[in-house]
Amino acid sequence: MSSQGFPAVRLRRLRRTAGLRAMARETRVSPSQLIAPLFVRKGKNVREEISSLPGVFRLSPDTARAESESFLRLGIPAVILFGIPERKDAEGTEAWDDDAAVQETARLLKKELPELVVLTDVCLDEYTSHGHCGVLRGEEVDNDATLPLLARAALSHARAGADIVAPSDMMDGRVGVIREALDGAGFSERAILAYSAKTASAFYGPFREAADSAPKFGDRRGYQMDAGNAREAMREIELDLAEGADAVMVKPALSYLDVIQRARARFDCPIAAYNVSGEYAMVKAAGRNGWIDEKRTVCEILTSIVRAGADWILTYHAKDAAGWLVDGTFLA
Predict the structure, then answer these.
(1) pTM (whole model) above 0.70
(2) Does residue 198 carry a catalytic annotation?
(3) Of 88, 251, 284, 319, which is the active-site residue?
(4) How do residues 221-265 score in pLDDT, each as one tens digit?
(5) Which of 306, 26, 256, 247 is nearest to 119 (CA)?
(6) What burial letters (b/e) apply to 48-80, b meaning 16+ CB within 10 Å?
(7) Marked catalytic residue, from 44, 110, 111, 198
(8) Could you tell me the CATH superfamily of domain 29-330?
(9) Is 111 a catalytic residue?
């Protein structure tokens, strides 16, 4: 038998014990790669569990601060804020209200937890009465009329202290308009994480309950990407980087690991992946029914996202996952 193969080569040798497996592990996940989503609303002592996202809550600024402090203790460096407005209208004007929940929470977090990295979602869907991500012309979202409104929201978030603004609307040209607005207002140091490859996915259902952001008519396939298009995703990323994005995102993560891998091979910027609400909810439901081992499943999912090439993972599993990690290895 050739010494280049079996029996001289036995790959099982480095799988024999937990210690050997840990030493040979190629992909490691760190809490420092995790970004925890927070849904925030006005008020005090608010902590409302979201029925379709067990373990995830709508929070007031004070409870969001307490939650964020617990993330930092676990080594999770960042949160992304999604707003639950007090009022909705056709333009989504509360999105750029300096006293809205996202802005109030960002100010509090940056004052009391200055080491925390605060990202803010920049979109209008939570704030519009019709639930679409921009202003309407008839029943179509008007791309160009939406751009200045997104810039106003991003500026409001920057004034509140956001370190990174993250436009998720998928309007063409929004990164460039936001970059110009930030730079012109003296916020040239604030970063943009663009939701560049965001698909019109069926996996967003629980999020829409959490944020009350489902469209009142139609859907978002006219502006979010088609699930079949990976080459188009590369074009979206390339354009957003050319307009001034500092990092880009693939959303959702699990059904789009190939898109993450293509992006990693082609672009040198930080790449984020959003392990979205539907992915989380399915794991929680199956775990609660005893159909899967929730801990091992979460560990495998997050490892696969990093293995595909993601630098950052937005995930509702962040707190649990960080508690299961030791030296980059899940104790599963």
Answers:
(1) yes
(2) yes
(3) 251
(4) 888 999 999 999 999 999 999 999 999 999 999 999 999 999 999
(5) 247
(6) bebebbeebbbbbbbbbbebbeebbebebbbbb
(7) 198
(8) Aldolase class I (3.20.20.70)
(9) no
